[in-house]
C-alpha cells in the first residue's frame, strides 16, 4: 500500500526559481528518502534523512523532516531545466528488509 | 559504482505468453532485491522482495503464481510474468541493496526499468 502522499502533484516553475514539494506519511519511520525519476527511466537517489534528523542539505537540495507531523519537504533551489522530473519520497521502517513505501510523486517542470 | 541493470529495457509480447525480466547488480552483491511496478504517471508499487537462495516475499494482492521471482545468485534476480494479459502492461523496476560493503545499508539502487506491453 502507498503510505506517502505528495503535494503538489504537479509544479511548473521558471528556471532560477525554487521548487518546494511536500510528503506526508502515516506510520512511524526509520528514515525517509527522496528520489528523482526522469520520464521513462529508473530512479535516482537524492538524499536520505533519518528519523532523528530534522534537516539535511546536499548541493541545491534541502530536505526537512518533522516526525511529529509525519511530513517532509524537499526544496530545490535555483532550479534548472535539467531538474525537470518526477520526485518521489519513500519511507522505510528499517529492519532487515528495509522495504520502501513510495509517495504519489510530484511532477516538476522547469521552464527555461 | 552501484549500478543495477535490467534486461530487456522494452518488450512487447502477445497475450498468454510469458516474459522474463532480469535484474543484475553489476558491481556489488545483493542479497535482497525488490520488484516494483509503475503505471503511467503513478508511483511505484512494491510487488515483492526477492531474497537470494530463498522464496520471495510478495506484497498483499500480488499473485505469486503469476509473477514468478527467482533470485539464484547474489547478482541476479528474475521476474517472470506468466500468461501475460494486457492489464499486465506496465513499467517494471527492480532495485538492489548491497550486502555488506561500505555503502549505506539503507540505500537501494534502482535499475532503469523494463517497459512491458502485452498486446
Structure description:
- The complex is a heterodimer of chains A (112) and B (119).
- Chain A is mainly beta and 112 residues long.
- Chain A has strands at residues 5-7, 10-14, 19-24, 31-37, 43-50, 55-58, 61-66, 71-76, 85-92, 100-102, 106-111.
- In chain A, the strands form 2 sheets. In chain A, strands 2, 4, 5, 9, 10 and 11 form a 6-stranded mixed β-sheet that branches.
- In chain A, strand 6 (55-58) and strand 7 form a beta hairpin.
- Chain A starts with a strand and ends with a strand.
- With 119 residues, chain B is an all-beta fold.
- Chain B contains no helices and 11 strands.
- In chain B, strand 4 and strand 5 (44-51) form a beta hairpin.
- Classes of the chains: A mainly beta (112), B mainly beta (119).
Features:
heterodimer; A: 112 residues; mainly beta; 6-stranded mixed sheet; 5-stranded antiparallel sheet; 11 strands; 0% helix; B: 119 residues; 7-stranded mixed sheet; 4-stranded antiparallel sheet; globular
Count the E strands of chain A. Answer: 11
Morphology of chain B: globular
Unreliable parts of chain A: none
What string, H for helix and E for strand, traces the elements of chain B in order?
EEEEEEEEEEE
Uncertain stretches of 5 or more adjacent residues of chain B = none
Task: Count every beta strand of chain B, where a strand is a DSSP E run of 2 or more residues.
Answer: 11
Order of helices and strands of chain A: EEEEEEEEEEE
Sheet with most strands of chain B: 7 strands, mixed
- Molecular shape of chain A: globular
Strand content of chain B: over 45%
Head-to-tail CA distance between termini of chain A: 37 Å
Given helix and strand content, the structural type of chain B is mainly beta
